[in-house]
Design brief:
Layout (H helix, E strand, L loop, with lengths): L1 H14 L16 E8 L7 E7 L5 E5 L4 E8 L1
Antiparallel strand pairs: 1-2, 1-4, 2-3
């Protein structure tokens, strides 16, 4: 039991050093349609990916995620 506790105490701080997951699209509420478009740069000149969720919760994605995006949410 002490070994498990010691291993946990020693490895827990290392988890803080792991890189965070990439940003993901915002969740779309039920009865809503949502789309996120990802761009190659801050100027939003070239779309490189996207995610679209329809009114029934079905999601389609294409391309790649990036840190530059626009988000739209509307009524069904």
């Amino acid at each position: 039991m002490r070994r498990v506790l010691l291993a946990t105490v020693l490895t827990a701080p290392l988890l803080a050093l792991l890189p965070a997951a990439p940003a993901q699209a915002m969740p779309c509420g039920m009865g809503r349609t949502c789309s996120t478009t990802y761009y190659s740069d801050e100027a939003l000149t070239t779309a490189v990916g996207g995610e679209w969720t329809d009114c029934y919760g079905h999601t389609a994605t294409w391309g790649v995620w990036s840190g530059h995006s626009t988000y739209y949410e509307g009524d069904c």
